[in-house]
UniProtKB/TrEMBL annotation:
Family that this chain belongs to: Belongs to the bacterial histone-like protein family.
Region (Disordered), start-end ranges: 88-112
Name recorded for this polypeptide: Integration host factor subunit beta
Keywords: DNA-binding
Provenance organism: Roseateles albus
Gene3D superfamilies linked to this entry: IHF-like DNA-binding proteins (4.10.520.10)
């Protein structure tokens, strides 16, 4: 799902909101999240997951063309950890898909 898909979905679900207002709301939320993470804060959305900034320490890498070693500096990277409800929901959807695929394969093997 892209940002524009989210805007369209929310505009359809909440008919009282204009597309422009929905787009502004999504932009405001995402900007607030980005700003919070850039200041080093942690974001937790119950039932969905949490976002935080992780530190990647400096390390030695290798230039693939020349083979020489290169120092890769420390960097801060955003990290998402899904919540329990999200993990279980995705797993349940995945399990249902696998069982449907198994049934389809079994039916095809019986026919052919």
């Amino acid at each position: 799902m892209t940002r524009s898909d989210l805007v369209v979905l929310l505009a359809e679900r909440f008919g009282q909101l204009a597309q422009r207002d929905t787009e502004f709301a999504v932009k405001t939320i995402l900007d607030a999240m980005s700003d919070s993470l850039s200041r080093g804060h942690r974001i937790e959305i119950r039932g969905f997951g949490s976002f935080q900034v992780n530190r990647r320490p400096p390390r030695m890498g290798r230039n693939p063309r020349s083979g020489e070693q290169v120092l890769i500096p420390e960097k801060l990277v955003p990290h998402f950890k899904p919540g329990k409800a999200l993990r279980e929901g995705v797993d349940a959807d995945n399990s249902a898909g696998h069982s449907a695929n198994k049934e389809l394969l079994a039916a095809q093997q019986i026919k052919g």
